[in-house]
Amino acid sequence: MVSPARITVSSGRLEGNTTPDGRVRAFLGVPYAAPPVGELRWRPPQPVQPWSGTRSAQRHAPSAPQPLVPSNSLYCGGEREFSEDCLYLNVWTGPAGDVGRPVLVWLHFGGFQFGSASNPLYDGTVLAREGATVVGVNYRLGRLGFLAHPALSAESDHGVSGNFGMLDQIAALQWVRDNVEAFGGDPTKVTVMGVSAGGHSVHNLRASDLASGLFHRAVVHSGPGVAPVLHGPGHPANPQSLAAGEQAGSEVADLLGVRTAAQLRSVPAEALAEVVLPRAEGPWTFDLSPGASASMHIFDSAYPVVDGYVLRESPLTAYESGRALDVPMIVGNVGNEGSGLPCLTRLRDYHEYVHREYGPHADRLLRLYPAASDGDVPAASRALEADRVFVWSGWTAARLQSRGGGCPIRHYMFLRQPPIGADSDVAEKSFAAAFHGADLPYLFGTYDVWNWPWTAADRTLGRQLRAAWLAFADTGDPTSGDSSLQLPSWPEFAEDAPTTMVWGLPAPIVSDVISRERMAAFDEINKTVEDATT
Predict the structure, then answer these.
(1) For 298-323, how does the pLDDT look when each residue is reduced to its tens digit (9 = 90+)?
(2) Helix intervals (H) in 375-515
(3) 371 CB-near residues (< 8 Å, 6+ apart)
(4) What is the C-alpha separation between 29 and 56, in angstroms, rounded?
(5) Catalytically active residues, by annotation
(6) What is the CATH number of domain 5-45+57-532?
(7) Nearest by Cα to 60 from 22, 18, 94, 30
(8) In whole angstroms, what is the distance from residue 473 CA to residue 320 CA?
(9) pTM of whole model > 0.85?
(10) How many other CB atoms are found less than 10 A from the CB of residue 456?
(11) Half-sphere exposure of 127 (CA within 13 A, CB side)
């Protein structure tokens, strides 16, 4: 019989779970900060109050309040228990006595609006069995995590508001620094990594002085955050200014009929989330099932802000200036990032949007992302936004880091299309391909989350991917892993001779698969934006 896992952290004793083979211990729902409720809503995370006795760490804690994603979507994590008391993390590690393990701190997807560390895709058992200590982090989301407002800024010692969820991530990294050694992790080998909004968060953390020294490597899966600043729909390509965040927060407060910080804190979370700003209305839809779509309102007001304190500048500016925290990084994308984005459905709307948002660049983009009829528009509009928000971001982060002469950067593309079964009811099945997040079951070894016809080749690809990521977490070099897996040499990225590791079948290869013409178009768009603001 396997004994429960017990461990002592800075705030008290925990009892977790041990796998039947005794090789992995899991501690779930571990508090890393005080509950951000009542007077602590919209305040920086506070220390955990120590507890007496032994606290159970055998089940996931509630997720941050959030809109529900349809259960048949690729982006549904199964969350059904929600609370403002959400600052918890999960740890998977090896058996007692196993020390010096590289640490992977995982930040989840969800556009800063939904998702959690309890998503079964992020179960760290396989990675822990293969040598890592894995830490999955919940952080405040939506308006509870990222609302800026003048009244909230006025009560801050630093005159800022809006980055509460980002402060949660920093508090979690501080908790890891102070406690991970008790789990067998090496506090000098912390890799912060994430997908989508989690990847965006990694870029943000690299632009924050408050995160300095808290991590030593970085991995960005499909992360926006380093892209031209536009006013288009959906996930913003870059953090907004504090003034813009405060303006949006003031609009929310006005619609609620409140003005003071105390009045804001008295608003129920449900009422706060239900406010839809007029700016959110429009023709963009999430086409998740036949005849059904979701409004854009979940993306209308609450995102990280460049406040000069938590986030001193945008990641794009930090990379351009060489001021980003200098750590080795892996950055990359999947083949179809647009699967996680909204789309347009009418040709007229598509042409109007491109001309309005991109002005003199519109004709060029309409040639690169063509649509001849309404039926072509969903794919074209998704591809355009995917390249702006995700692909150009990763490509640019790689180029800018390679110019700086600091730590090495490596770029990848994940092109394997997971084998979604013919009888699957996945909402995105018709346009999924190598969908946004397609690399996650390979990275975590969590194939069984989806009952699809996975092949032996899929499982081999996952072992190769995990070996490279674990080697990187351990040494900073993804090529230093298990030679028996026959990975090709993965050279450091260099702008004058760019290379990309293509994760696909029949085997990973080193290539260059970036669409140069499309990326060049966004280079020019970014230059136009920068010239207009200087």
Answers:
(1) 455 688 999 999 999 999 999 999 99
(2) 377-386, 392-403, 440-444, 456-475
(3) 347, 350, 377, 379, 380, 381
(4) 8
(5) 196, 337, 436
(6) 3.40.50.1820
(7) 30
(8) 25
(9) yes
(10) 7
(11) 33
Per-residue pLDDT of 166-178, as tens digits, reads 999 999 999 999 9
Question: 243-262, pLDDT tens digit by residue?
Answer: 989 999 999 999 999 999 99
What does DSSP assign to residue 361? G
- What sign does the CA torsion over 53, 58, 64, 66 have? negative
**Confidence at residue 210, expressed as pLDDT on a 0 to 100 scale:** 98
CA separation for the pair 54, 530 (Å, rounded) = 55
Q: Structural domain boundaries of the chain? A: 5-45+57-532
Q: Write the pLDDT tens digit of every residue in 185-196.
A: 999 999 999 999
316: buried, middle or exposed (CB in 10 Å: 19+, 13-18, 0-12)?
buried
The amino acid that residue 121 corresponds to is L
Paired residues of 91 in beta bridges:
27, 135
- Give pLDDT, residue 307: 95
CA atoms within 13 A on the CB side of 320: 12
Give burial (CB, 10 Å; 0-12/13-18/19+) of 455: exposed
Looking only at the bridges linking them, the beta strands covering 5-9 and 12-18 are antiparallel
